Write the structure tokens for this entry.
Amino acid sequence: MALYLGERWEVSYGIEAAFGTPPTAALTATNLFGVFDDCTLPDLEFEHQPYWLMNSTNRTYNIAYRGRARSEGSIPNIVLLDGRPLFLPLADTITHVGVGAPYTHTFQNTSGLKSIRLVATQYPETGTTAGLCRWFVGGKVNRATYHCEEGGMLTMSLDDIIFKMPYYEDDDATNIAPWYDVDSDKQTLSWPTTEPYYFSQASIKMKLASNSFVEATIPSIRNFRLDVNNNLEPKYYLATNDEKVPYEIREGRKEYRMAFLVDLVDYTTGSFDKNDFFIELLNQGINTTLKGCAVEVTFTRGAGDSIRFRTPIDYTPAAGLGEQGNLIIRAPHNIATENVLAVPVEMLCRDLEVVVTDSIAGGSYPI
């Protein structure tokens, strides 16, 4: 008896030229997300509709009809080995600059998202022949999180990925249309040799309105988290659709939120003060021309090798339409048992830019 083992699997992705393109022999999905231990694959769920009609004997339903199909999954805690997958929840374009290393790759939030195909292959406990291979097509990232903890590594979680539908290849069952496709085959993958981005390579800088927008390095950040929500909505139109899957997946209002935990410590050098966040919070509560603040988080592995998150994009908050920076929602200064008071700061962010500098040419990026 052969078993599927939790240690024997491969997951990769490819960029679609058109939303929901079915598998063909010419298509590939060889891009890697990074390092992770587990994921929730977007296998089919059906919203069958039960009816309790004409039942004179008991209280159970009498008949059910086939409902619409859903295909959603997630990949948590992906340790990033390079910056290539960072664009997935953000943008459908990347600006590449450079004719030689180091190269610069810039992602800014765009109205649309690239759709992807995800290929998952599970192997039995012996041999190298794929036991079950699935292609999930028409995928878009609905919610994602970039985060790093003290003592840890920079990670990305794809908290919710919505797909159009899956296809599978399994020699034991080849006649279950429309889900079976002989071209839903495994991929040949190459593993990157780069190291992760560590907490010890991070730098967080801020410009607070209450401090006249003087840039200050925050030296005592214990963690940071940046959430992206695309508010995707699968559309089930009145159209020919035997599979009862989404006709398309539309982007909604994009939302960004940032949170971090900071120890309140005074330092003899620099312009950061332990009361800055409390003053900024109060200032926003009375200021009639909200400007907000700017935040820049950078991970530097070496010369010409970094990832930088910046919000707002122009790093210059101002009052007015499309000009505001990040607004602090809460920063509670509680009494705790820890020897250093740590304050959780949460912010509402208007936009986001990610800039990756590395030795990878633009042609080797997914888009």
Remarks:
- The radius of gyration is 24 Å.
- The chain has a mean pLDDT of 90.
- The helical segments are 276-286.
- The first helix runs from residue 276 to 286.
